[in-house]
């Protein structure tokens, strides 16, 4: 049996007023709680942290780095305060106040301990694959909100001296208000579950959402927001529910496929398209990539024309090879032999509808890497080569006239003006400049 300070005073034949005895009892309780605080925080907690800090498993190390032990020690102190109050303080107002204080103390530090434990679990899961596949931060935040609401209900019940069941039953009438207050967390929780269940978004995914100017890597999926680190190192915050209600582009499938698409066209000047002459064909046959194509195509064309006894003296009769068709064939063979083009994915070299800027020859292929810098280098090298070889097919790339082109016309116009003045002296007729 644990004797109270009043029992010790009576045993020592010391008689004081009830107020003094109460003060002495409170002082003894405060001293014992101070000793317990020193033993817990500077003894047990420090020893446990030091041992777990060097553990080979990551979970104990995370516990040692968190305030979980400190909150647990404060919780034990609240329990000790309640026990001492029941044992040493006589029933009455003082006991009721101290018991209420100890209960609120225990509830608050129990809540903080739960928060700390959830943070530890979240940090531990971040080292595992499950953190990537599930919106754990949103789930943890939801659990914290629920724990905070429950703790608040119990604290209010302690303060008003009523059962928590009465308060919980009264929440039914406040459901609409609570749903309005927690609308965003509820929508975010539902959206997080849908994103996870349908595997729509994970940490590290490349997300593109023009509506929110988001184009970068997902770095956080929380209860109400999703953070995206854009490629210019800015961070865009998107409401979690917007990922369900609006459309967005996830580039994860591209990254997992191992190939990234090249879809770009080169515009050919229509005035440079013509049939291939024999001399030109002989020069192109020297190409290692084109020789087989030209030989096979030439035999096919000759057999076709011979079978129909075509009169080849007219360009309107029979079949002939064109420079633009041979150029397309060369690009296709070149791409199929390129070391950085994916051979198991779609590969096309196609001619699109002519426009005011010429006839587009589009390259549609996939690189065998998804790394951004490497992809751009491969694409640039590929079109560097295309621009350089297009002249070998007697084709011209369409380009709108620039100031440099206009400056090149100045000598021609000056020569025309001089000749015009020679034929028509000034005052005898209109000059070329006037006509122009």
TrEMBL record:
Pfam families reported for this sequence: MS_channel_2nd, MS_channel_3rd
Highest taxon listed in the record's lineage: Bacteria
One GO MF term: mechanosensitive monoatomic ion channel activity
Residue intervals passing through the bilayer: 20-48, 68-89, 101-122, 143-160, 166-182
Any GO BP annotation: cellular response to osmotic stress
Keyword vocabulary terms for this entry: Cell inner membrane, Cell membrane, Membrane, Stress response, Transmembrane, Transmembrane helix
Name of the featured protein: Mechanosensing system component YbdG
Lineage: Bacteria, Pseudomonadati, Pseudomonadota, Betaproteobacteria, Burkholderiales
């Amino acid at each position: 049996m644990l004797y109270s300070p009043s029992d010790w005073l009576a045993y020592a034949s010391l008689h004081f007023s009830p107020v003094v005895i109460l003060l002495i009892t409170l002082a003894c309780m405060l001293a014992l709680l101070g000793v317990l605080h020193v033993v817990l925080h500077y003894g047990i907690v420090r020893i446990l942290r030091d041992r777990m800090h060097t553990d080979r498993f990551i979970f104990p190390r995370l516990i040692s780095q968190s305030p979980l032990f400190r909150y647990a020690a404060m919780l034990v102190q609240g329990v000790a305060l309640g026990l001492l109050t029941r044992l040493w303080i006589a029933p009455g107002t003082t006991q009721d106040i101290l018991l209420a204080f100890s209960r609120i103390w225990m509830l608050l530090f129990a809540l903080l301990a739960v928060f700390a434990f959830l943070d530890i679990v979240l940090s531990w899961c971040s080292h595992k694959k499950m953190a990537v596949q599930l919106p754990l931060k949103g789930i943890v935040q939801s659990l914290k909100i629920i724990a905070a609401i429950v703790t608040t209900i119990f604290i209010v019940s302690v303060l008003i001296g009523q059962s928590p069941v009465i308060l919980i039953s009264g929440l039914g009438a406040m459901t609409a208000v609570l749903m309005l207050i927690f609308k965003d967390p509820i929508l975010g929780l539902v959206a997080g579950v849908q994103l996870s269940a349908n595997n729509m978004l994970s940490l590290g995914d490349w997300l593109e959402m023009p509506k929110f100017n988001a184009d970068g890597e997902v770095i956080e999926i929380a209860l109400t927001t999703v953070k995206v680190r854009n490629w210019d190192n800015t961070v865009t915050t998107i409401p979690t529910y917007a990922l369900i209600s609006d459309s967005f582009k996830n580039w994860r499938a591209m990254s997992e496929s191992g190939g990234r698409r090249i879809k770009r066209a080169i515009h050919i000047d229509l005035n440079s398209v013509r049939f291939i002459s024999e001399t030109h064909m002989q020069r192109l046959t020297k190409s290692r990539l084109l020789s087989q194509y030209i030989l096979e195509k030439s035999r096919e064309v000759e057999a076709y024309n011979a079978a129909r006894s075509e009169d080849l003296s007219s360009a309107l009769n029979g079949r002939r090879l064109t420079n633009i068709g041979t150029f397309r064939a060369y690009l296709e063979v070149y791409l199929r032999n390129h070391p950085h083009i994916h051979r198991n994915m779609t590969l096309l070299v196609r001619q699109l509808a002519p426009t005011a800027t010429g006839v587009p020859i589009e390259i549609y292929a996939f690189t065998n890497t998804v790394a951004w810098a490497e992809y751009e280098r491969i694409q640039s090298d590929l079109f560097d080569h295309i621009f350089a070889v297009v002249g070998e097919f007697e084709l011209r790339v369409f380009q709108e006239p620039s100031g440099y082109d206009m400056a090149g016309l100045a000598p021609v116009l000056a020569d025309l003006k001089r000749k015009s003045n020679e034929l028509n002296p000034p005052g005898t007729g209109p000059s070329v400049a006037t006509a122009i």
